[in-house]
Amino acid sequence: MPTFSSNPLNSPTYSRIFRKNPALFGVPFVLIVVGASFGLQQFTQTRYDLHDQKVTAMSKEQELGLAKDRKKFDIREEYFKLSAAAAEEWEPKRIERPKGLPEWGVPPPEPPAPTDSKKP
């Protein structure tokens, strides 16, 4: 049985052209990808613009309500307020001393004598 030839007798013209010049297939593909990128850029920009409008949309009444009851900030006043609060809210607490340490933290003049538990 004879084998089939690798070149068919009636091959389509576009396959011969693409086989000779592969750039004829690649260049339009790259152009479509780049063009789609620019087209999608418009949609994504619209999306972010709409989100920005939602976030920044504030009526005049809301703006006036925010600024109406506001007090002027003074750093010195805040400092004194915080320092007074810190001075009022704490109390000294004593901690347990380790065994063998006197009340005021002065170490004994010499170490204690070792005890021999083996002596009768």
Describe the protein.
- The protein is an all-alpha fold and 120 residues long.
- It has helices spanning 13-20, 23-56, 60-68, 75-88.
- The longest helix has 34 residues, at 23-56.
- It is elongated, with a radius of gyration of 44 Å.
- The mean pLDDT is 77.
How do the helices and strands line up, and which of them pair or pack?
Elements: H1 13-20, H2 23-56, H3 60-68, H4 75-88
List its salient traits.
elongated, mainly alpha
Radius of gyration, taken over Cα atoms and rounded to an integer in Å? 44 Å
Helix/strand structural class: mainly alpha
**Distance between termini?**
115 Å
> Order of helices and strands, N to C?
HHHH
DSSP strand count: 0
Shape: elongated
The unreliable regions are none
Mean pLDDT: 77
Main sheet: strands, sense, barrel:
none
- The helix content, as a percent range, equals 40-55%
Counted by DSSP, the helix tally is: 4
Residues in β-strands, percent: under 5%
How would you sum up this structure in a few lines?
By secondary structure, the protein is mostly helical.
